[in-house]
Specification:
about 110 residues, Alpha-Beta Plaits, 4-stranded antiparallel β-sheet
């Protein structure tokens, strides 16, 4: 499952968030994250935030990882399940076919 984590924190939380990010990235580098959870990319914002793309067995498992190792960052994050549209994935193609079938059934 592909998940975008949208992070937006208050300026006063910057040091705490940065420490949690150091801890989280260290766990990832050491391979100590739960099985199936993988960080694909991180894109920093200029307004105290970031967008990260994750692979995870479920949204709940990724949220649990954040709650345990980055509780302040977790509170400043929205987790959104997404489908990769380009280049197209099988999951995306199936979602289109299901949508077409539902529309045709009406």
């Amino acid at each position: 499952m592909l998940i975008i984590a949208v992070h937006k924190w208050k300026p006063e939380a910057e040091i705490t968030i940065t420490k949690e990010m150091i801890h989280g990235f260290t766990l990832l580098l050491e391979g100590k994250q739960p099985q199936g959870i993988k960080l694909q990319s991180t894109h920093m914002r200029s307004d105290h935030g970031a967008f990260c793309t994750w692979e995870s067995p479920s949204k709940e498992e990724l949220e649990s990882f954040f709650k345990k190792f980055g509780p302040t960052l977790y509170k400043a994050t929205e987790f959104i399940h997404v489908l990769q549209a380009f280049p197209a994935t099988v999951e995306y193609e199936l979602s289109l076919l299901k949508m077409i079938t539902e529309l045709a059934s009406k």
